[in-house]
Amino acid sequence: MTIRDKATEFSTKQDVGAGGAGTKISTNVIDTQIPGGDAAVGEETRVSFLVEEAFSGGTSCQFQLFTDDDTGFGSEVKLWESPAIAVANLGKGAEIKAKLPFGCKRYLRAKYVVVGATTVGVVTGGIVLEVDNWKAANPIAPQF
């Protein structure tokens, strides 16, 4: 199960396919509030990009993660990138995940590199926590 939090989202239903080819920057920047630290240290977290509305047209999209010490991203460092993923594999519900890499600076953002004349491709992306073996509470069990 993937746990999402609005405070750790790069994009919330951002249409990165609109306008065709090019590099689209995530609408949000995540402030880890760890100056000089590394958000990847501690409990394992992941970066997840969920396709909310299928990509249409175009050839592919590549998902990237960047970090920097300031919100202007003037000296950004690329932490991770997916391979170019064919639009045929970016239907609704497709999810691209990776472990949050070491080397994070205070601020994080995503970029989407779209190839070809896409007309739509809606993505929600961010830092998530994955919980293995999660089970719902038993509704008839005695409660505390």
Count of distinct structural domains: 1
Q: Can you summarize the main beta sheet?
A: 6 strands, antiparallel
List the uncertain runs.
none
Structural class: mainly beta
CATH top level class name: Mainly Beta
Specify the CATH architecture: Sandwich
Order of helices and strands: EEEEEEEEEEE
Strand-residue proportion: over 45%
Helical fraction equals: under 10%
Q: How many distinct helices?
A: 0
**How confident overall, as mean pLDDT?**
87
Written description of the protein model:
- With 144 residues, the protein is mostly beta strands.
- The protein has one domain (2-130): Jelly Rolls (Sandwich), CATH 2.60.120.
- Helices cover 0% and strands 49% of the residues.
- The chain has strands at 2-3, 9-15, 22-25, 30-31, 46-57, 60-68, 77-81, 85-86, 95-99, 107-115, 118-130.
- The strands form two sheets. Strands 3, 4, 6, 7, 8 and 10 form a six-stranded antiparallel sheet that branches.
- It is globular.
Question: How are the SSEs ordered, and which strands pair?
Answer:
Blueprint: E1 2-3, E2 9-15, E3 22-25, E4 30-31, E5 46-57, E6 60-68, E7 77-81, E8 85-86, E9 95-99, E10 107-115, E11 118-130
Summarize the structure.
With 144 residues, the protein is mostly beta strands.
Overview features:
Jelly Rolls, mainly beta, globular, 5-stranded antiparallel beta sheet, 144 residues, 6-stranded antiparallel beta sheet
